Amino acid sequence: MATLLLADLLSWLAVPALPDVLSQLGLVTLLSAFFVLLGVVLAHGLKITARAIADYFSSAQRTRRRLLFAQARQDQVKRLFYFRTVQLKYFNALKRTRLLKANNRKHIHLLSNAISRQLMSVKPSLAAETFKELQQQNARHRRQQNVAALLQLQQQIANLTDNK
């Protein structure tokens, strides 16, 4: 930089050949300083890259990566176990409700058949209208799957037979 200022000063003083030589010398110095700086930056970048590559392939880092892989796999297995457990609980609950509904339908059907047999046994002692009404109630409660009403109807028929 100083050579360029000196060349400018000499050209102002009107010294003929020296300013051109000093300008060339200043430009070459500036350009070589730039290339030296660029070389230092590239060398530093290569040094950092080489150090990172060496660090990546070091035994400590390999061990650390294996440990992280094992931990990730263990976490994955835990999540899989949790979701399978949730899925099993859901399907078991679904199966349980399906079985419960089937069992309830079966018992309602058995209760309705018992009521029908009980009605047939007391048919001679009942009026035709009462018998028909009780049969309709039995059919309606069976269709509605109403256990409480069927039990009440059975009790009502038992009371009719006790009264007569």
Q: What features would you describe in this structure?
A:
The model has no long low-confidence stretch (mean pLDDT 88). Helix 1 runs antiparallel to helix 2 (18-56), helix 3 (59-122) packs antiparallel against helix 4 and helix 4 packs antiparallel against helix 5. Helix content is 90%, strand content 0%. The chain is an all-alpha fold and 164 residues long.
Could you write a compact summary of the structure shown?
Helix content is 90%, strand content 0%.
Brief descriptors of the model:
mainly alpha; 90% helix; rod-shaped
Compile the SSE list and pairings.
Layout: H1 2-12, H2 18-56, H3 59-122, H4 128-144, H5 147-163
Helix pairs in contact: 1-2, 3-4, 3-5, 4-5
The assigned structural class equals: mainly alpha
Roughly how many Å apart are the termini?
132 Å
Identify the quaternary structure here: single chain
Please tell me what the overall shape is: rod-shaped
